[in-house]
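[stage:ingest] chain + small molecule (magnesium ion)
[stage:ingest] validated
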Amino acid sequence: MDCPIDASLIARTKGFLDPEEGQTLFEIARTASRLGPCLEIGSYCGKSSLYLGAGCRENDAILFSIDHHRGNEEQQPGEAYCDPDLVDARSGRIDTFAFFRETLDQADLEDTVVPIVSRSGTAARQWATPLGLVFIDGGHTFPAAFSDYNAWSGHLMPGGYLLIHDIFFDPAEGGQAPRHIYELACRSGLFNDLGIVRTLAVLQRRTVTMLPADLPT
Ligand code: MG
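[stage:predict] done
[stage:export] tokens:
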């Protein structure tokens, strides 16, 4: 099933997401949200939330979407991915929250997507709800990506999906922090690797954890 969100809304929503990756987010959210609520780290202006939210809406489920809305390290004024439209005139700082709200409103997703305006680590401190899907697309430094993986992947239910954006195997094409946590997840023995769609890694939490073969019984 194609994502039912209006193509022109997707096209005009700021963000860094390939349509094929978006369609994958939609399809997996549609499956995962039958298990439980879904959660993304890195809302930005809501482009990925359109796809994930549309998938959740099919099951009358909820997408939690976390972002401090101050832009990541690469989006600050003067940095490579800074968009001057997103600089708030009063504060002089990046503020993507108004754009995010407008995206949800235009897609009629306000009863599906719950924005959490917070640093991911702060939101994680008291989190206790098991999740059907975690999409990691927040800060792209090694400490940021690792702390997102560390804080959130453990909340996945058995059979839940872990999605990681911006996987580049050639360092010339992009930062290596998302790839690093993807490889940590693969090596953990906790996930099945379902493949990579462009730069989007898809893993599924195993329902039966495999023990290393050389552990004593
Ligand atoms: Mg990304």
